[in-house]
Specification:
By secondary structure, the protein is an alpha/beta fold. The chain is about 40% helix and about 20% strand.
């Protein structure tokens, strides 16, 4: 980069259409990063994907035509796949924001919050607190099965035991699935044979419920209804749990989930608000990812480093407003996350985010 008078980063986000509010917030955040940490040679070029694959492909062609050294975005999986074809042909690396692993690789990276890091972090915390026997009750869709793969990997890596994995149809009544999962009939029968003994506990002491909203509250309530005491069995979640409405669900009180460290993100939102006004609801994590992608490009430019695979995938990672992150050669990422606990007063941080990627997954 040292011999270049200008380094160009094209930002591909939806600046029109149904998701224009998302794209505008991401563009604002990228401009904020450019102002705060940018190399003065770095030129940010916002391009509208219109939130469609066709728009993303056209924006990617425009980025290449304008001499982009790196592409930041797009946001949605179909957009990323469309833009990727153009970027690969031009040998321009892409830092996207999708959580779809099928859209990345071969020079396409993502800063999206993937389930793997979330599951690894909360499982590691549970093991540190003495939990040994892990179970997973997940919805039977792509997300649920992706979490299941990460769950098996994380529990094995932490020296725990996976004792049960079960899936439920997210569009159907989960009652019978939850009843079978908790083995309530077997335990009730044992208690009926000898009423002097309490009902046996379930065969697990930690259960992951990677769902959200009303369905999560319903499933968690059913688990406790079938004689699983949250005081003995710790409920675990992913970032889907980062929802203030969960504070009123008794069965989830004390549950743990992985999320970005709170302080740095709040500071980012304060700086954003001072420059552009408050972030729209549900856009904060996207805006901060756009900030971090721009800051990464600026950092490499400032150090006169090119956007090669070796530099983008620096194993030491980068410090972002959502904690440490590092991009991996397969296009995925590792993130240094904190652990939050659900309480009636709102989530509180009970496990700090790491300060380095050694050991991995902590």
């Amino acid at each position: 980069m040292a011999d270049k008078d200008e380094v160009r980063a094209a930002l591909l986000v939806p600046l029109s259409g149904s998701y224009a509010a998302y794209g505008q917030a991401m563009s604002n955040a990228a401009q904020l990063a450019l102002f705060e940490v940018g190399d003065q040679r770095l030129n940010l070029i916002p391009l509208d994907t219109r939130g469609t694959p066709e728009g993303a492909a056209a924006a990617a062609r425009q980025a290449v035509a304008q001499g982009a050294d790196i592409v930041l975005g797009p946001l949605f999986s179909p957009e990323v796949k469309a833009a990727a074809q153009v970027a690969r042909e031009a040998a321009v690396p892409v830092l996207a924001f999708t959580t779809d692993r099928t859209a990345i690789g071969q020079g396409i990276y993502t800063l999206g919050f993937l389930p793997r890091s979330q599951v690894a972090r909360v499982v590691a915390h549970a093991r540190q607190q003495g939990k040994e026997r892990f179970a997973l009750l997940a919805r039977s869709d792509e997300y649920g099965r992706t979490v299941a793969d990460a769950f098996r990997e994380a529990v094995a890596a932490q020296g725990g035991q996976v004792v049960k994995v079960e899936f439920y149809d997210p569009a159907a009544d989960p009652t019978q699935t939850v009843k079978r999962f908790t083995e309530s009939e077997r335990r009730a029968a044992a208690h009926a044979r000898d009423k002097t003994q309490p009902v046996q506990p379930p065969p697990f002491d930690a259960v992951m419920l990677p769902d959200e909203g009303t369905r999560l509250r319903s499933v968690a309530s059913l688990v406790t209804y079938f004689e699983v005491d949250p005081g003995d069995v710790r409920f675990l979640g992913t970032m889907l749990w980062d929802d203030p409405r969960l504070a009123v669900e008794p069965s989830l009180q004390g549950g743990w989930y992985a999320a970005p460290p709170t302080a740095a993100h709040q500071e980012f939102e304060s700086r954003y608000a001072a420059a552009f006004g408050p972030l729209p609801a549900k856009v904060g994590i996207l805006a901060s990812s756009a900030y971090d992608a721009t800051a990464l490009a600026a950092a490499l430019s400032r150090q006169n480093l090119d956007f090669s695979t070796a530099n983008i995938t620096n194993p030491g990672g980068f410090a972002g407003v959502d904690g440490l992150f590092r991009l991996l050669p397969d296009g995925s990422n590792d993130r240094g996350l904190a652990v939050r606990e659900v309480t009636r007063a709102g989530p509180r941080e009970v496990g700090p985010a790491p300060t380095s990627f050694n050991p991995v997954g902590q």
